[in-house]
Amino acid sequence: MTQSSKKNKSSQTSKNNPWIELIQTVITAVILSFGIRTFLAEARYIPSSSMRPTLEVNDRLIVEKISYRFREPIRGDVIVFNPTESLEAENFKDAFIKRIIGLPGETVEVKAGKVYVDGEKISEEYIFEAPNYNYGPSRIPENEYLVLGDNRNNSYDSHYWGFVPKNKIVGKAFVRFWPFDRLGSLYEQPIYLK
Q: Is 170 helix (H, G, I), strand (E, B) or coil?
């Protein structure tokens, strides 16, 4: 048997062998899945009521990871982020989901049930109820963000533990896919200044 006929026979065997095809398919799927989850998007579920009414417990959503490579996060974005240093010090390991309220360089204050950014009250149609606490005024450092839960009085957020560095942001939550009766975008109301 010649060298070329051995190669042809070996290549035909791998093409006709269902186990080899299955292994190749599984390996390809794993590589694609890892690449998509790492660089493009991933599914997340909501474990708490801190984002009510926008997100309910057990809602499922897609977090996209591309847009912040081309633009800065903006006020109103619902983001998923890894624990900050202060949260890690409290032994938090799971990612958080909150809404960006304050941007780098801005001053945020919460008083009399309203949120003020650089002295201007922002409109917040999406919150569960007005905050019953005071916060600030606090100036946000460069490359960091102030985040609050939409369920202001039941959210462990920036008014407790500080700001979120940009490098901790995983991505932007943009669409809910479960439950089906709440399927759709998380951004239906224009609510922000600037």
A: strand
Give the separation between CA 155 and CA 89, rounded to whole angstroms.
Answer: 18
Domain ranges of the chain: 3-39, 41-179
Q: Is 65 a catalytic residue?
A: no
pLDDT in tens, 14-61: 557 777 776 766 666 555 555 555 555 688 888 899 999 989 999 989
Annotated catalytic residue within 65, 98, 168, 172? 98
Q: Which of 50, 65, 158, 168 is catalytic?
A: 50
Q: What is the DSSP string of 55-120?
A: S-TT-EEEEE-SGGGTS---TT-EEEE---HHHHHTT--S-EEEEEEE-TT-EEEEETTEEEETTE
pLDDT in tens, 77-100: 999 999 999 999 999 999 999 999
Q: Select from 132, 161, 123, 122 the least CA-distant residue to 144.
A: 161
What is the DSSP secondary structure assignment for residue 7, as one 8-state letter?
Answer: H
| Contact in structure between 158 and 146 (CB atoms under 8 Å) | yes
| pLDDT at 193 (0 to 100) | 43
* DSSP designation for 125: T
* Residue type for position 159: H
41-179: in CATH 2.30.42.10: no
Whether 98 is catalytic:
yes
Task: Give the distance from CA 109 to its chain's centroid.
Answer: 24
